[in-house]
Amino acid sequence: MCVKCGRMVDNASAVALGYIHQYLIVDSDELARLRDKDLKSLLGKKKLYLVLDLDHTLLNSTHFHHISPDEEYLKSQIDSLHDLPNGNLFKLDSMRMFTKLRPFVRTFLKEASNMFEMYVYTMGERPYAMEMARLLDPGKIYFDSRVISQADCTQKHQKGLDVVLGAESAVIILDDMEYVWGQHKENLILVDRYHYFASSGRSFNLNNRSISELKRDESEPDGALATILEVLKLIHHLFFDLERGDDIMRRDVRQVLKTVRSEVLRGCKLFSGLYGMICARIPTHPPGRPKFVGVGFRGDFEKVLNLVRIFLSYLGLFLNHTGNNNIFIIAQEYLYEKDISLVLTIKRPLLERIARCTGAQIVPSIDHLSSQNPGYCEAIKVEKFFEEHGSAG
Model's pTM, two decimal places? Predict the structure, then answer.
């Protein structure tokens, strides 16, 4: 159906937008015009587009018959479908399914909505997509009709931005699967998969006990979505940076994302105003094989908290989560290849988390390093401080 006159059209270059209206088909020229018009309006509001995957990104679902014996306790912790905004674990009888929302997701959506016009894009069927969107956005204030499902895809087993009413130059994608975005990897931020239910992990050949079986969950303040939110804030800030002085309509968020990817781990140039990040070579290690070293000492914790979140996120981003169980080894190898070591001012719990993820050496103070001159980033002057934390771990 033509959006101008209402007549049915037959055009190989036209795009079906069934998620907006069942019979809506837009000619390629008209689609380009609509995108340009919408982009001008959105940029005027200082917003970009954010395309969000559902499963393993914002939530996790499992069928009733896949619940393990150690997950039976969940049946007594179901939240009411009559109070969606305050719930996080739901029983969907019509689909014979349990759905668990990822921790921090409601805060994530609320804050992201100030920076982005958001779409849901899932390879699931439309009834499932609509039900998940209802759980996430019961008031329809974030997604409205922008819920794209499997039937809307123009290529089998692939997601594409051709059905999104947003210019590719202004779209960021969050998804746990890279291969489904074959033509749009430059727009993609990979998200660490959320495996709450045991069946979810098994589908990716993970045999360890699930976090639901362990009666645990991701951290709200330090989990994946909180981390990604900080990355999105950074990208949004850089895209709309007034000091750039160029035509905002000609800016490309893919270039911003590329810059952030390359700079976050390469020399902390983007963070020169943040106190306490040091890029260093450790001379006693073999050439080209520096270690990832974290030193705990006094510093302004709040100033570096966002930096740590961004760093942890980009460890995952660079590794391209493909189900590899040796992710921590790969992380260390990546840092080796980049000839990078980092020292962060950080409290002990997060320092230990970074150490576990990277095979780091934790020392009580700079005095315990094998070199008295660990090096520095040119943008940051390094002084020598220490705080006792007990023996080196």
Answer: 0.68
